[in-house]
Amino acid sequence: MPRYLQSISGWVFCLFCPALVVAAESEPPKLSAQTILSASPDSALTAALHQLPGEYLHLDDAVVRAAQQATDTRVAEAVMVAAGQSVRREKGAFDPELFGSADWSGADTPSASLFAGADVLKTETTKLEAGARMRLALGTELSASLNSLQLGSNSAFASLDPEYQAFGSLSVRQPLLKGFGPSARSDLSFAERNLEAASARYDAALLAVRADVEILYWQLFAAERNHAVTLIIRDRADAFLADTQLRAKAGMIGPSQVANAEFFLTEAEQALLDTEEQLDLYSDRLASLMGQRSDALRYRAVDEPPRQFYVADQDSLVAVALRLNPDLQAMAREADAMRALEHGAKWDARPTLDVIGSLGGNGLSGTAQDVFFPGDPNPVRTAIDGGRGDSIDNVLGRDYPTWNVGFVFAVPLGNREGKGERERVRAEVVRAEQQLLAAQRSFAEQVRAQHRELARGQKRMALATRGADASIKQVEISLIEYRNGRSTAFEVVRLAADLATAQQRYSAALVRTARAAAILRQLTGGWYSGTTTGTDPITRENGS
Fold first, then answer.
1. Residue 142 DSSP class
2. Distance CA 519, CA 433 (A)
C-alpha cells in the first residue's frame, strides 16, 4: 500500500479514536472499534476495502476478455477477413480456367442442285470444344483449345459419313502499352496493400483496447481507494458528531460547533454517494469493454499500478512510434494501395498495342463411302478412313499446321477516360500521403505530450505525498488544539476535507502516470512496456 494511504489511515486512527470511544457508548460506528484499534496503521483502510462488494478482477484477465469481446476488435477483425477475401478474389483473375462446349444440330434442306446428292439433304452436326486459358501478371493472355466437328449427311456424294474434322490452336496475346504489367495486377496490388492495412488496423484495435482497459482498471483502482477513504471519513464523521453532541451537553462547546459537525457528516455522506457512483461508472465501462458484467455488484481491482516507470528518450520514443505504430503502418499501406492503382492507371492511359499469335493444326478423318458419279459405273473412294481420334491425332501432331501473327492497335481520340482516371488516382495518392503526414505529426505530438506527463509523474506523486503529509500534520495540530479548547470543530472539519482532497490528488497522480504509460505503449505499437527499454508488440493469439 502507498505510504500516503498508510498515512491517511493512520491519521483516521489518530483523529477519530477518541471520538469512537465516546460514540461507542451511544451508537456503534459502521466499522468496529476493534478494527480501528488494531496494531496495523493501515488496518482501517484495509478493512474498508475488504467491505466493498464486487468480483475481484486481474488486469491480465480484463485485457484478454476485452480483446476477445470488444466490439472494436471484432469489427477490425471482420474488416481484415474481408480484405483477405478481396485478395483471394483478385488472385482468382490469374487462375487457370478450363472451358468447353457441346452442340448438336440437324437440318433438312431441299435442293435442286445436281451436286447436292439428294432431293432433300439431311445433315446432322456435332460440335465439341475443350480448352484452357489463363492470364499472367504481365497481362499476357494464353489460350489452348481443341475443337472437334462431326458431320453426317445423306448426300450421295459424301465421301466420308460420318466425317470428323478437328482443329486446335495455342494462342497468345501480349499487351505492350495499355493493360501491361502494373495495369494487369493493379487491382491485386491494391487489395494486398489493403489487407496489410487491415491487419495493422486490427493490431491497432488490440492495442487501443488494451490501453483503454488498463486506464479504466487503474481508474477503478483509484476510485476504490477514494471510496474507501470517504467511507472511513463518513463513519468517523458520524462518531465525531456524537462526540461534539456529548461535549455540547456537558457545556464544553457551543451549538455552532455541533452544527459544524453535522455539516461535516452531511458533506461526508454526499461525498460517499459521489465516490460510489464513480466506482460503479468505471466498473460498468470495464464490463462494456469485456462484454461481460460481473455477477456481483461490480468489478474490483486486484493489481496495483507501478510506482516507477522507465522514461525513455523522447526523440527515441517518437522514432519508434513513427516506425511501429500500427495506425501509421495502416495509413502507409493505404497510401501504397493508391500508388498501385496510380501505376496501373499510367499504363491504362496509353494507347492499345497488343501482339497476337498462334500455332495450331487441322485434322480430318471419317468412314469412307463409295461415291458414284452419273454415267460412271466405277465408284470413287477416298483414301481417308478413320475415327474421331484420328482427326485429333492430326491436330496434335500438326500434320496440317496453321499459324498466325499480328498486332492490334487502338488510339482513343482525346483519351479522356484513361487520362481522367490517371489524374483522379494521382489526387487520391496525394490525399493519402498528406493524411499520413498529418497523422505522423499528430502522433509525434501525442508521444511528446505523454512523455512529458510520464516524466513529471514521479514528481507529481512526490508532491501529492508531501501535501498529504503536511495536511496530516495540520489535522493533528488542529485536533490537539480542539481538545484543549483552542480550536473549533469547524477548523477540524475544514482540514479533514482538505485531507480528503489531498488523497484524491494522490490517486489522480497515480492514475495519470499509469495512463501516460499505457498510451505510450499504444502509440509505440507495444514497444514501450513502462518498466524496460522496449518489448515486442502484442500478439493476436493472446490479445495481450
1. E
2. 25
Residue written as grid cell 503536511:
470
- Look at residue 155 and tell me if it is in a domain: yes
Please state the rounded mean pLDDT for residues 482-488.
71
The pTM (predicted TM-score) of the whole model is 0.78
Q: Is residue 171 part of a domain?
A: yes
User: Could you give the CA distance from residue 217 to residue 63 in angstroms, rounded to a whole number?
Assistant: 10
Number of domains in the chain: 1
Q: Distance between CA 456 and CA 336 in Å, rounded?
A: 39
CB atoms within 10 A of CB 90: 17
Distance of CA 387 to the CA centre of its chain: 64
Among candidates 217, 432, 449, 205, which has minimal Cα distance to 325? Answer: 205
pLDDT digits (tens, 9 = 90+) for 405-422: 999 999 999 889 999 999
The amino acid present at 501, given as its one-letter code, is T
∠ CA 7-11-17, nearest 5°, is: 145
Q: Which of 232, 287, 171 is nearest to 14 (CA)?
A: 232
Q: Residue 237: inside a domain, yes or no?
A: no
Number of Cβ atoms within 10 Å of the Cβ of 39: 5
pLDDT per residue over 111-158, tens digit each?
877 677 788 888 999 999 999 999 999 999 999 999 999 999 888 878
Scanning 160-185, the segments in alpha helix (DSSP H) are: none
Domain span holding position 128? 108-190+336-428
Cα distances from 306 to residues 216, 218, 227, 316, 364, in angstroms, run 15, 10, 21, 23, 89
Whether 321 contacts 303, CB under 8 Å? no
Grid cell in block for residue 247? 461535549
Condensed to tens digits (0 to 9), the pLDDT of residues 236-268 reads 788 778 878 888 888 877 888 788 888 888 988
DSSP state of 93: G
Kindly report the length of the chain: 544
Whether 391 is covered by a domain: the verdict is yes
